[in-house]
């Protein structure tokens, strides 16, 4: 079932059916209440007649219909009555053309009023009451009273017409309103459906059409628009990463091929072959480093970030120990400024990799004989690791781009250009961020912030 039909069914057809059912049930209740009113009248009349049937001199039986001051009302409402003797013969009747039974014995009726509805040959309904009464001489008699239900039927017919008219008007109004509402709702959902089809086909170029509403569909449209924008950005980054990776891979491959081609053009001495193979080995190492960095970056993006308790200061100390030999070759001293311990919940492998990348980057650009400072700041909501060098620093216009994959400030510098990109991936995966600022006195200061879980 389509959305449009479902909205019409539950928004118009079903409510209309429920309204019709409610009006029908109200009609049944009204019929019951009107019948109860008639029954009360007949019962009161029977009580009145039963105590005064034999109150005349000589205890002769008589009915009081003709003696009542309301005889005109009784005739208008078609009140009827009859009294039957011990043998069941009809003794008295009002009016003369009554529809009372010809015979009715006291044995045929109960001592308590018995009420029933009878339909005459003309189709008119009447309400009957029968009751057994003893005369003062102990003779059993039967009293029969009746009233026409024509006024009740007329009231119910009028109610039925009014209910049908009101029900039809309400149903039509509901249908028109629901058609307009459903059409607008379906159009809004259809626009989102078309947009989702484009997303499924890989088209992130456009956002979903604007929605002027303020309901959940408008909120859904805004969420889809935000997701589309993020998908578009991710797709652009992915394409750029693939293009940059292809370019970076092509460079050492080209160098290796040229070296091999030159070597094969003429005979070479063993020393020349060793030199050529050494240069090829250097390019192979470049390819290996680039592949390792790409794999590390891919694993960071798809891995599950399970945090465990660890000491950040101990991780930084281990990184310093691992890089001390490289730093000593360039007479660079490494200094740690940190508390005794800085407990935090983090992913130990990626955190250590980020610190290694920052420290290796600082040692690479630090002047010979200078120092690199590592600082650990333990805060209430986050932990911050700072790595400062005395190198040339990072120009303001490049402080954001250097965190993108394959971005280098200086060409010819060793490295795949992925170290800082991995640092930012690690920081963001931990709910933090990474950035670079200028070190007071010159140089660069890299910040790695890890949010507390």
- CATH topology of the largest domain, which one? Beta-Lactamase
Regions with little confidence, pLDDT below 50 for 5+ residues: none
Mean pLDDT: 83
Number of domains: 3
Shape: rod-shaped
Q: What order do the helices and strands follow?
A: HHEEEEEHHHEHEEHEEHEE
What is the C-level CATH assignment of the largest domain?
Alpha Beta
Main pleated sheet = 5 strands, antiparallel
The percentage of residues in β strands lies in: 15-25%
Strand order of the largest sheet: 2-1-5-4-3
The radius of gyration over CA amounts to: 51 Å
In whole angstroms, the N-to-C terminal distance is 46 Å
Question: Which architecture of the largest domain does the CATH hierarchy give at level 2?
Answer: 2-Layer Sandwich
How would you classify the helix and strand content by structural class?
alpha+beta
Helicity range: 40-55%
Overall description:
The protein has 453 residues and is of the alpha+beta class. The protein folds into three domains: 3-155, Beta-Lactamase; 204-302, Helix Hairpins; 306-451, Heat Shock Protein 90, CATH 3.30.565. 52% of the residues lie in helices and 17% in strands. It is built from eight helices and twelve strands. The protein has helices spanning 3-52, 71-76, 150-200, 216-265, 270-302, 312-329, 348-365, 419-429; strands at 80-84, 90-94, 114-119, 125-134, 140-148, 308-311, 333-337, 343-346, 371-378, 382-388, 433-438, 444-451. The strands form three sheets. The chain has a five-stranded antiparallel beta sheet with strand order 2-1-5-4-3. A five-stranded mixed beta sheet has the order 7-9-10-12-11, covered by helices on one side. The protein has a two-stranded antiparallel ribbon with strand order 6-8. α1 runs antiparallel to α3 and α6 (312-329) packs parallel to α7. The two termini are 46 Å apart. The relative contact order is 0.07. Residues 244-453 form the Histidine kinase domain. It is a multi-pass membrane protein. Its EC number is 2.7.13.3. It catalyses: ATP + protein L-histidine = ADP + protein N-phospho-L-histidine.
């Amino acid at each position: 079932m389509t959305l449009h039909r479902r909205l019409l069914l539950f928004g118009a057809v079903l409510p209309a059916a429920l309204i019709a059912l409610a009006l029908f049930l109200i009609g049944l209740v009204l019929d019951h209440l009107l019948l109860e009113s008639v029954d009360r009248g007949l019962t009161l009349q029977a009580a009145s007649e039963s105590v005064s049937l034999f109150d005349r001199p000589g205890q002769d039986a008589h009915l009081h219909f003709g003696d009542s001051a309301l005889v005109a009302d009784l005739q208008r409402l078609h009140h009827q009555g009859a009294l039957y003797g011990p043998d069941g013969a009809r003794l008295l009747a009002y009016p003369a053309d009554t529809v009372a039974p010809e015979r009715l014995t006291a044995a045929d009726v109960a001592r308590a009023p018995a009420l029933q509805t009878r339909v005459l040959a003309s189709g008119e309904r009447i309400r009957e009451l029968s009751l057994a009464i003893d005369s003062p001489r102990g003779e059993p008699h039967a009293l029969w009273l009746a009233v026409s239900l024509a006024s009740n039927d007329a009231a119910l017919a009028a109610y039925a017409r009014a209910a049908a008219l009101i029900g039809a008007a309400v149903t039509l109004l509901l249908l028109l309103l629901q058609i307009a509402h459903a059409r607008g709702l379906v159009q809004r959902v259809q626009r989102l459906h078309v947009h989702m089809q484009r997303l499924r086909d890989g088209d992130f170029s456009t956002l979903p059409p604007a929605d002027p509403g303020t309901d959940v569909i408008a909120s859904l449209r805004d969420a889809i628009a935000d997701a589309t924008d993020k998908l578009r950005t991710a797709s652009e980054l992915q394409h750029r990463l693939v293009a940059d990776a292809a370019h970076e891979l092509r460079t050492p491959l080209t160098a290796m091929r040229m070296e091999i081609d030159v070597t094969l053009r003429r005979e070479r001495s063993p020393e020349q072959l060793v030199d050529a193979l050494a240069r090829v080995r250097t390019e192979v190492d470049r390819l290996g480093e680039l592949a390792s960095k790409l794999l590390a970056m891919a694993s960071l993006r798809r891995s599950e970030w399970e945090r465990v308790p660890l000491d950040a200061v101990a991780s930084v100390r281990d990184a310093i120990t691992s890089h001390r030999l490289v730093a000593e070759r360039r007479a660079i001293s490494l200094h740690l400024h940190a508390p005794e311990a800085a407990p935090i919940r983090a992913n130990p492998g990626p955190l250590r990799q980020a610190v290694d990348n920052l420290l290796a980057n600082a040692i690479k650009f630090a002047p010979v004989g200078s120092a690199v400072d590592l600082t650990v700041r333990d805060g209430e909501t986050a932990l911050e690791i700072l790595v400062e060098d005395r190198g040339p620093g990072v120009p303001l216009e490049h402080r954001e781009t250097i965190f993108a994959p394959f971005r280098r400030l200086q060409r010819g510098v060793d490295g795949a250009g992925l170290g800082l990109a991995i640092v930012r991936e690690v920081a963001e995966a931990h709910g933090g961020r990474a950035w670079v600022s200028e070190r007071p006195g010159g140089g660069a200061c890299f910040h790695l912030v890890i949010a507390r879980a």
